[in-house]
Every structure is written in C-alpha cells, then in structure tokens.
Amino acid sequence: MNKRVLITGGASGLGKALATEFLKQGDKVLITDIHEQRGEETVFELRTLGEIHFQKANTTLDDDWDALASWVSEKWGGLDVLVNNAGVAAAGRIDTMPMSDWEWILDINLKGVVRGCRVFTPMMKKQGNGQIVNIASLAAVANAPAMSSYNVTKAGVVSLSETLRHELSSYGIGVTVVCPSFFQTNLADTLRTSEQGMDSTVRKLLAGGKLSAEQVAKKIVRGANKNTFMVLPHIEGKALYLIKRYAPFLYNRGLADAGRKLRKKLERNS
Questions:
Q1: In a domain? residue 243
Q2: Which residues are catalytic?
Q3: Total domain count, the chain
Q4: What is the per-residue pLDDT for 215?
Q5: pTM higher than 0.85 for the full model?
Q6: Cβ count near 66 (within 10 Å)
Q7: Domain with 130 in it
C-alpha cells in the first residue's frame, strides 16, 4: 500500500533526500519548508519520481500546522507517515550564549516537533495506524561541550519519542527517532554562534561526514518501514552509544578531554 508522507524541512538536505526515498518506494509526499522557491524547485526536480507537493509552512506556528492538517485531510483523507525533520543549529558556552538563541532553537528543534506530533496524532488515532519519524541527532547521546542548546533540544526529541512510543503503540501508531552523526548537509547555514572559529569547525565536520544525505535517508526509510525505534545511521554513532551505555568511564573521559581542549583553545585566542 502506498503511504501518504509529510516531511518538514523537505526542500533541501536530508528532507529532500527523504522525499526522494519515499517517492522511490511509491509513496505520496508532501514537503514543507519556509523557503518557498526552494520548495517549488524541489517539487519540479522530483516530480518524475511520483506524486509530490509543496506547502510553505513554519513549524513554530500553530496556524501553519493546522493548515497542513487541513490540506492532508482534504487531499489525501489522512496521513500515514509524519517526518519531523526541520531543524537548526546553535553553539556556545553556557555563559556566553544569549537566551534569545536558546529560545530560537528550542522553538524550532523541540517545540516544532511537539507541535507536529500534537496536530497529527488525533488523525492517526482515528485511522488506527501511522508512523511518526522524529529527526534528532547523535548530539542527543553524546553531549559535547559548547553545544548545550543543541544537545538539549535533540535529547528532548529522543525523550519525547520514547514517551510517544509507549503512549501511542496501543493505537497502532509507531514512533521512530533518528540520531545521525555528521553528514553532508546544509545545517551549518542556520548556525548561530558567538564562538570564534565555530562556524568553520562545524562546516568541516559536516563536509567530512562518511555518509551522504542520500545514504542516511535510505537507512531512515528502512527503519521507519520496520517501525525501528532508534535509528543510528553511522557506525561511529552506534559505537559511541554502546560505549556510553556499557563503558561510561571512557565516554566521560573523552568528553572531559574535549572540554579541557576547548578551554585551552579559548585561552589562546583571547
């Protein structure tokens, strides 16, 4: 059976790659994004693969979510897969990052996911089935120094997903949460930071990722199809997850070293 799929942040990067993968397996796809031109260009590019639509939407606005639910209900009569993919990045030490940046990233990365789940859960309950796919990050597992706001939002997405997994399973609704490591995407374009050199560091890490967005997307779609709860696309991510769980002293020693190196670097720069 062909699924009806909604992907937020679907006009570029991982969202676009996910749209491609769902289309390839015969699903109908609605992508949303705040960038209207980019969204329309993506639809034009992918239209030969199957049925794809675009609606401009801001995941921080309740009215936009309500409009998406109305569109899905009127055009498709329901939704089978919700992919909460839209997200941004921020970096900074706890004593230097302004609260305005905290509020910005929380509203998009965490509350945006909450809004999507709240709006579409009633529809899926009524259907008696559905799959929610929340894109978190390996930052939810490995909490690197000077990334507190980003780490918190992604850890919150994992916690929300685990809660909903148990809350919604009796209604036939599955939940998948994804924790990728660095891969080739445009996340750095959204980065807010006051830390010297952080922008170039993040870009290098993303560019040096061992997997492409397309490879990550394939693993996500495969996991969603199987109702896998946690998808860790990267081998190093799986290893780090296991180290933190079974050898926490090694994990803590490694991140403590990272904190000391960060302090030395900042002191040299100052």
A1: no
A2: 150
A3: 1
A4: 95
A5: yes
A6: 12
A7: 4-235
